[in-house]
Each structure stands twice: as C-alpha cells, then as structure tokens.
C-alpha cells in the first residue's frame, strides 16, 4: 500500500538526485510509503530475524548487539512495491543507468545495548569511483520504526564518498586521525516510518549507540550499475513461481538465482572490523 499521493517517476528532478548523491552522498524521500506499509514490513522482518537467529550463520554480527540478515525477496510482502516505486526507479536510472541491477535485500538490527561502530565504508571503493569519479552502486534504507536520538541513529559524514582510501584498513576503515573530519561533518538521520533514503555505501558512516529499550530495524536494498560486482558478495534467490509472477519491468533488473526451492543464505559479506565496536 504505497502512499496515494506520490510523484510519477518522470516528475523527480534528476539533477537534484545526482547532485545529492554526488554531493552529500545521501538523499531521502519523506512519506514514500504509508505507515501501514512500513508496519507490515516491520512485522515481516521481526519473523525473519527470529528465524535467522536460530540458524548457524543466519544473522551476521556487525558489532555488539547488532546484526545483519540477508533475506529472500519473497520473505517480505512489499518487495515489488519497493523496487517499482517511482522514486527508487528514478534514482537508480539517474545514477546507475537504465541497466541497473538489484543485487541485495536484507536488514540491519541495532538492538538495545548496541555501541558506536567505527567510522567505515561498507566495502572498498572501486576504480570506477577512485579513478573514474563515478558512483556504481547505491544502498536504499527504510526504517520500520520512528527513529529517536536514543535509538542509535545512523550517522553519516557527507561528501566523504570521494575520500581516497589512504591508510584505510581493508580499504574500508579510515585511521583514527581522520575521525575529527568525520565528526565535524556528522549528521544523524532520524527517519520516520514510510521514509526512504538512498546513499553511496562509500560515504563514511557508522551506527551509533542504542541506549533505548527498542530495536531499530532498517531494510537494505542494494543496487549496482553494470560495471559493479557487489552481486558476488550476496546470494539473491527467488523461486521459479515467484520470478514468473514478477512484472517484466522488475525481472530485467534482478541479478538472482531462480530456484525450485529457496536455500538458506550463507552470508558472504562479513565486515570483521565492526565486530568489536568503536575502540
């Protein structure tokens, strides 16, 4: 149930989209979906999270009291609505080109007691960005709760997607000598249910400490340009019946395995530097 009053794809300002992602490295759309739609997403994630916690390797640690879970598209009821939302399509086409590929769907859960993560990127910057000065991937995020300052908001240092990774551990973790630069720029994001954001995963960011009594689940949708290879870190699967029922406009943008029976996902994108939290 997408919010009734939303813009058509062609009515979004392409220059504003590109300016935001090439400038700050993060943009957002308030009220993209109804609160009921976000609540339904939260219900689905809660079930998937409990299931993942029971399976060895089902939930990957991203720091104390913090997990990431990669899921199957058909595990949530709103996958088609999310991927075909006019703003999502417009952002993907503007930044990644008409042949963009959806390569990841999952969620993060910073639970009560989660601590500050170290500043980081989600993966090393590719040559497309370091040399070509192009963004070849995006991450979309949707909260399932109204975020408040005590819930460990996502914190981002705008403009840092272009920082060269000199001295970065594993190409992802900047030296502590650069922390003052990020803290000076830092913006905490407090989205509400129904909001959506798009960012470059190269923009330096971190999850902050969740001192509340409430988890802060957030859905993650990963999208690549044809020149990116992030699909190698993930295992997007759909059953044959589900795939055939998808709109053709969505099928052509999925990089996935079509299977007779869904298999448990073995998460390949671990980020060991996040396991201990900020030192």
UniProtKB/TrEMBL annotation:
Coiled coil spans: none
InterPro entries membership: Fungal_Metabolite_Diox, Phytyl_CoA_dOase-like
Gene3D superfamilies (alphabetical): q2cbj1_9rhob like domain
Pfam families: PhyH (PF05721)
UniProt KW keywords: Dioxygenase, Oxidoreductase
Organism superkingdom: Bacteria
One GO molecular-function entry: 2-oxoglutarate-dependent dioxygenase activity
SUPFAM superfamilies registered for this protein in UniProt: Clavaminate synthase-like (SSF51197)
Listed name of the protein: Phytanoyl-CoA dioxygenase
Organism expressing this protein natively: Solirubrum puertoriconensis
Lineage: Bacteria, Pseudomonadati, Bacteroidota, Cytophagia, Cytophagales
């Amino acid at each position: 149930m997408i919010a009734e009053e939303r813009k058509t794809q062609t009515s979004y300002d392409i220059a504003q989209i590109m300016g935001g992602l090439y400038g700050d490295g993060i943009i957002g759309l308030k009220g993209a979906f109804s609160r009921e739609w976000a609540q339904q997403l939260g219900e689905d994630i809660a079930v998937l999270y409990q299931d993942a916690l029971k399976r060895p390797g089902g939930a990957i640690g991203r720091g104390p009291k913090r997990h990431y879970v990669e899921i199957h598209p058909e595990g949530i009821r709103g996958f088609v609505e999310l991927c075909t939302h006019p703003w999502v399509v417009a952002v993907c086409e503007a930044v990644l080109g008409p042949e963009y590929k959806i390569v990841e769907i999952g969620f993060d859960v910073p639970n009560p007691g989660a601590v500050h993560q170290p500043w980081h990127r989600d993966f090393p910057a590719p040559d497309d960005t370091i040399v070509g000065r192009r963004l070849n991937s995006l991450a979309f995020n949707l909260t399932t709760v109204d975020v408040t300052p005590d819930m460990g908001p996502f914190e981002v240092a705008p403009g840092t997607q272009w920082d060269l990774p000199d001295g970065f551990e594993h190409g992802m973790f900047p030296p502590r000598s650069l922390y003052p630069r990020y803290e000076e720029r830092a913006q905490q994001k407090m989205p509400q249910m129904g909001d959506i954001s798009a960012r470059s995963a190269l923009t330096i960011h971190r999850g902050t400490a969740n001192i509340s009594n409430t988890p802060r689940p957030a859905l993650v949708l990963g999208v690549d340009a044809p020149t990116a290879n992030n699909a190698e870190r993930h295992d997007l699967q759909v059953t044959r019946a589900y795939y055939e029922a998808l709109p053709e406009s969505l099928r052509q943008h999925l990089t996935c395995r079509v299977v007779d029976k869904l298999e448990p996902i073995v998460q390949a994108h671990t980020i060991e530097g996040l396991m201990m939290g900020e030192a």
